[in-house]
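The records we work with from here on pair a chain with its fold. These numbers are not coordinates but entries in a learned vocabulary of local backbone shapes. To see the layout at work, look at the sequence and tokens printed below:
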Amino acid sequence: MKHTTHSAWFVLLAIACGNGSDEVDGSSGGLGGLAAGPTGGLGGALTGGALTGGTGFTGGMSGVPTGGVGTGSGPGGGTSGSGGLQTGGTGGLGTGGTTGGTGNTGGIQVTGGTGGLGASGSGGAITGGASGGGGTPPTGGVAGSGSTPPTGGASGGGTPLGGAGGDGGVMGSGGSESGGTGGGTVACGTTATPGEIITFNDDGGWCWYQDERVIVDPNANKLVIGSVAIQGSRNGNVEVTMYNLDGSGSPQRTMLGDLNPDDHNTSGLLKIGEGKYLAFYTTHNDDCYSYYNIFQNGSWGAQNKFSWSGHGCPTDNGKTVSYSNLWHMGDQLYNFVRSTETSPNLITSTDGANWTYSGRLTSTDRVGYVAGYYKYWGNNVDRIDFVGTEAHPRDFDNSLYHGYVQDGKVHNSTGTPVDNNLLDGNAQNITAYTKVFGTGARLGSVTLTHLWNCDLMRYPDGTIVLIFTGRANGDTNDPDKRFGYARFDGTSWKSTYLVKAGHKLYDSEQDYTGLGAVHPTNPNTIYISTTTDPRDDTTAFNKHEIWRGTTCDGGQTFEWTPITQNSNQDNLRPVVPYWESEKTVLLWMRGTYHTAQTYDTDIVGVIMDGP
């Protein structure tokens, strides 16, 4: 494939999250655009007749009767000043996009006095007037029915702007709210300008049962990416790509090992010291080894291997080992691998160089191919969470179960120990843990069966989020697959219907989808790959596109923003690595996916100045 770098035209959008009951003065679109007033006034010129200096109050008195007057063509209600609460402001008159901008019924509340991009400071801005019929709003404005919003507010039939289709052109963030309703609601999320789409590896693919496939080293300011190449002389190469997050230099690719061509062979990655990384990988049921390399002193070392012979490999049905999931807990490194009886087993180390077999996570009867599939997330301090299934969804009607490892024990979701000793060689059936979502349960308007896990994340406040898929009917050739979102609030799991997941990716895998990713530092943000527009769950696209979902109500509802649009190639299997930063890295596979052993995809991504 020949590959190019494309501009990613993201424009900041305050995503309105709410329903009609949250409307203010009948606004029909989203929030306003770029505000730059330092102490509360909505200042800064917007492209095309925005507020040019609506003055705020720099003392912020509660109960100030009138707002600042805007002098451009947008609505004119000023904001309260720093630290104040304006409770009855009357908007100024608009002359373009609005016909007499109606001010906020309750004023604009700004706790810190600094208005955001159509959003408030920390107090949450509530926008006022809507644009009148016929006016085309400037950047960030609210379009009236029939208008075309450039970027920002929702339109009632307007056309959202976006990047060029091409090879997965990145969408601008505007005009995405379906139907243009719910305007004037409180903003809870933004998509930010990320720069350009970067091709990190021009021949790469990954499965989704190795974690982490991508890591950020904040101290070195590096992005480390694992993938498997299959084209030409690189066929079967297990590779790691490094990229400087400040944009200096080009991506640097290293071959760790030469195995068979299969995206299941992707390495799991872990930082194990300053400037020191560990990469673990296996074949896909071809031998009884876990292979690993260590990066230190600026380069990757030679390939090493751990032998699973004598630890149930091969199994009685001829399976060997697959997958690598690396996490740090206390003074131990853990690698969860599908091995003995095709259940998740683990090896441990204190230095990354020497490994010991340490037992099994679960012991579930094998049905068909293997005894379940597992997604993991660890805080790399004292806890590792997992969600597993009983089997492969083509062999068994799976449910989803959650547990976690801590203090040497394995617990259910609410903290009750199920296995009192992780390392004693004994293990429990996955069904002994907390059921997240049971097969045959209803989600939205459909009943889901044959469930599969996509991505898992736990947050410091105890919130846990899972994206999963299920079949919506009994068709076994090309099931009607749907995405679900499950969230644990510390007491119970609650699930929300998301969107149709599209046709199977290839013939022999009925349940393969474009998958999804949960933002590692924000439980209210997710990304999914689908051929259906999640805003209406009806409009179909020719290729898989990446969408960003934002929830303001704990996962009950989502607002959707397109990340790619009009693509002539599929955009699959998004990944967001953990990064303690104001920025976010979103990566995915772009290209043509035929099977796990035959694909023609690049590893691409964007760096966003926000969550």
User: Anything to note?
Assistant: Confidence is low (pLDDT under 50) at residues 1-168, 171-187.
